[in-house]
Amino acid sequence: MTSFPFAPDAPWRIDRTRLASLAERPARDWTIDIVDETGSTNADLMEHLRSSRHEGTPSPIVRVAYSQSAGRGRRGRAWLAEPGDALLMSVGCVLRRPIEGLSGLSLAIGTAVLDALAHLPLAPSARPALKWPNDVLLDDGKLAGILIETAWNTPDATAVVIGIGMNLHGAERLAAQVDEANRIGAQSAPGAPPAALARAWPDANLTDMLAAVLNALDAALPRFEAEGFRPFRQRWLDAHAWAGREVALIDQGLELTRGIAAGVDETGQLLIDAPEGPRTVTTGELTLRLAKERP
Question: Which part of the chain is the BPL/LPL catalytic domain (predicted)?
């Protein structure tokens, strides 16, 4: 692949020395690969985990790109970002849990992202929150998305790739790009407008954000491996952006039902008090919107 022509001294580049000082154990024990450009960091690590399946249980491997030509989110939506404006990263690891034991992983990772943000100098008025099943919001705008994929599994282990895309700068430019993608039909039904971390942290930078996320994942992954989603549930409920609000479940542009968002159960399934009675919703391919929004 041809190297993307970013200036080697661009101020937004990740400072490896500072990263090592801030993310002590991950920087020492994990493989951290930073590239200028790739198609998709998730796709890169999926290929890596599949090709190295029989080489034993590896330490987590991290892939960070300043630009992605085929970045994507849930349901195949394109993830748009300009170089230096977003943290585009994936973590590949093997969790000693069967694939059915991964229920709630994307929600647990959402709480880890909140923990990372809590260690950064955000403005006191900032309101990070979580939207089921894989979005991190900031003041009701979409700050970050999480995409979990599985590379392989056995009865007692699963190789997973955890993709995280987080906007640091350029929210207005990103909003214009999203609007254009929606106009030409390149995106499915629009959700929350994009938000950038610079709203709450003017000096937002890739180095400190990456270090904070790595430290949070270093704590969250072993805990999830040992206990599943259960220990993360209360943290998620405390940050639930739409708790007690009327929401609509959308399937391929059609509204299935609406009701009051009542939280999540111990496996990460969404709980809705619908007119027809309580409803439990797995992640699947459904989309959640506030009821006042229309697909």
Answer: 21-225
Share of the chain above pLDDT 70, in %: 87
Give yes or no for a contact between 81 and 88, defined as CB atoms under 8 angstroms apart.
Answer: yes
State the CB neighbour count (10 A cutoff) for residue 138: 25
The answer to whether the CB of 214 falls within 8 A of the CB of 61 is no
The predicted pLDDT at position 77 comes to 59
Closest to 95 (Cα-Cα) out of 194, 210, 225: 225
Contact 75, 46 (CB under 8 A): no
| Mean pLDDT score across all residues of the chain | 89
- As beta bridge partners, residue 249 has 257, 288
For the chain, how long is the longest CA-to-CA vector? 59
Q: Identify the CA nearest to 158 among candidates 148, 167, 145.
A: 148
Q: Is the peptide bond before 128 cis (omega within 30 degrees of 0)?
A: no
Contacts of residue 18, Cβ cutoff 8 Å, sequence gap at least 6: 207, 208, 211
Chain region(s) in the chain for CATH 3.30.930.10: 16-238
Residues 265-294 have pLDDT tens digits of: 999 999 999 888 898 888 666 788 888 755
User: 207-222: per-residue pLDDT in tens?
Assistant: 999 999 999 999 999 9
Class of domain 246-290: mainly beta
Burial class (CB in 10 A: 0-12, 13-18, 19+), 185: exposed
Domain with CATH 2.30.30.100 in the chain: 246-290
**16-238 is classed CATH 3.30.930.10:** yes
Rounded to whole angstroms, the Cα distance separating 235 from 275 reads 28
Write the CA distances from 71 to 50, 65, 150, 164, integer angstroms. 20, 10, 17, 10
CA atoms within 13 A on the CB side of 115: 18
